[in-house]
Design brief:
Strand order of the largest sheet: 4-3-2-1-10-11
Order of helices and strands: HEHEHEHEEEHHHHEEEEE
Strand content: 15-25%
Number of helices: 8
Oligomer: single chain
Number of strands: 11
Number of domains: 1
Low-confidence stretches: 1-13
CATH superfamily: Metallo-dependent phosphatases
Helix content: 25-40%
Amino acid sequence: MPPSIAIHSILRTMTHMAEQIFISDLHLAEERAETLALFESFLRKRPRPGDQLYILGDLFDAWIGDDDDAPLACRVREALTETSTRGVRILLQRGNRDFLMGRRLMQAIGATLLPDPFLTKVSGEPTLLMHGDLLCTDDVAYQKARRRLRNPLFQWLAMRRSLTWRRTRAAEYRRRSGEVTSMTPADIMDANTDTVLDYLHHYQATRLIHGHTHRPTVHEYHLPDGRIAYRHVLDEWHADRGAAWVADEVSLRREEIC
């Protein structure tokens, strides 16, 4: 590397202001090799030492447990471990597809598992981070199923089964989920406005960032106390493109990932 380029690279690292990077809904799976490659490239190039990378659920299309030894699970563990080793802080929330992520995975990759919801500061604003499925209260059937799947006893029993058994059940879950989604009206699967306002009020937040609905946009709300709140919906990633919301000390912006 020429000296001028090396010096420029060092100066960029020295002057880098730590950022918060928010992504979700990559739905990584063996058959989505291009999305996995995009994610690995993103981890190598985008987060820099000192940054905080928030993955707000559904990193995997199905996670059968922290003992998964499939090639996909191993590649993702390796990529995330390399990222945290570089000084990037990784913080994850469980989604409706990877609710079996646990402490063993966090320890392996050097990450922190966040509760859902989680209140933090983003560009100085009190911000609520969620996967997003808790906001879809019009989908009564889904909320009932969610309570069952998140039951600690159900999860304890599932993790006592073999990897082969869990892989079979995960494939069935993915198939049924696709069928239900195709037959359910889209508005029922979206965030309920009253529920959003309830969460904002309860946590005294003026910003909400979430995924799950796959409807990337920014919603504006006028709160009873006169404040304005914003709801940022994260993108679902595809084979050749994704997106992240990136915050520095003063602003929050959307970045294309390709």
